[in-house]
Design brief:
With 288 residues, this protein is mainly beta. The protein folds into two domains: 39 residues, no CATH class; 242 residues, Jelly Rolls (Sandwich). Helices cover 7% and strands 37% of the residues. It contains three helices and 18 strands. Strands 3, 5, 6, 7, 9, 14, 15, 16 and 18 form a nine-stranded antiparallel β-sheet that branches. Strands 4-8-17-10-11-12-13 form a seven-stranded antiparallel β-sheet. The longest helix has 8 residues. The radius of gyration is 20 Å and the shape is globular. The protein starts with 7 loop residues before the first helix and ends with a strand.
Length: 288
């Protein structure tokens, strides 16, 4: 980083079909629960969540991005952000899905970048420390495409902030990369000990759920609920090895091109538009 279809909406409707109005007979009036309260109480029917409580979620149920929760990622020099744009063609919310697109730039008189992409972040709007994260997403494979779901720490600049990459996908791979970054991994560790990342097979171009379980001692990455890689805290290696004791915020980004993704060949403009769709983002805390 710095370094099913038609039944889905029906399933969601059933999942959240809870009574909105409850009668408080003892007090003689009606109390109306807020939609947010109902949604937080309605945890998905998933046995792996038995010991977890849903504390924050984004279902993208409106017709536009919720500006109280998300901001557009701004362009910068790093590869993941050098084609970012606020072009309205690149982002939409429809049928409960966030769409982040990447296109060939057809307006080079206004912007010299060969491609334009979109990304969103909860920076300065939502962050959390420890818990279980799940993000359901899919993307259209393309040569040069680099969609990613990831997190950065709030307290320090990168890499001291730490970085948790829940998913990065390159080109037409049938795998995704899941990795952590820190001062230790970037500048100190020369032997990849403990191993900072791994890969996991996915149903390419289909919906998959990416996430992690994160606590004071380890980060366990998951794909479709299955553990795929564990990064442990190693106290004797010092605090730079474990900056993962601070709040982290989300970044959901679509990128086209860059040294890493173009390692297997140049971007193919005929493959675009391409992009990533995000169905939902959920954060859980361990039940006490």
């Amino acid at each position: 980083m710095i370094d099913q279809g038609g039944t889905k909406l029906k399933t969601r409707t059933v999942r959240y079909a809870l009574p909105v109005i409850s009668l408080l007979l003892f007090s003689g009036f009606m109390a109306i629960s807020s939609p947010l309260e109902l949604r937080l109480e309605a945890q998905p029917d998933d046995p792996s969540l038995a010991d977890w409580k849903l504390v924050w979620e984004e279902e993208f149920l409106g017709e536009q991005l919720d500006g109280s929760r998300w901001s557009l990622c701004e362009r910068g020099r790093a590869d993941w952000m050098n084609t970012l744009s606020d072009d309205p063609r690149l982002l939409s919310v429809k049928d409960g899905v966030l769409h982040l697109r990447g296109i060939v730039n057809d307006r080079k008189d206004e912007d010299s970048s060969p491609y334009l992409t979109a990304g969103v972040t909860t920076e300065e709007k939502y962050a959390f420390r420890y818990g279980k994260v799940q993000i359901r997403a899919r993307f259209k494979s393309a040569q040069g495409a680099w969609p990613a779901l990831w997190m950065l720490g709030t307290d320090k600049p990168w890499p001291a902030s730490g970085e948790i990459d829940l998913m990065e996908h390159l080109n037409f791979d049938h795998i995704v990369y899941q990795t952590v970054h820190s001062v230790y991994t970037v500048r100190i560790d020369k032997t990849n000990t403990p191993r900072k990342g791994g890969t996991a097979e996915i149903r390419r171009d289909d919906w998959n759920t990416y996430g992690c379980e994160w606590d004071t001692n380890q980060i366990v990455f998951t794909v479709n609920g299955r553990p795929t890689h564990t990064y442990p805290r190693v106290p004797e290696k010092g605090e730079q090895q474990w900056p993962f004791d601070q709040p982290f915020y989300f970044i959901l980004s679509m990128q086209i091109g860059g040294k890493w993704v173009n390692g297997s060949g140049p971007t193919n403009p005929s493959h675009y538009p391409a992009g990533m769709e995000i169905d939902w983002v959920r954060v859980f805390s361990r039940e006490q």
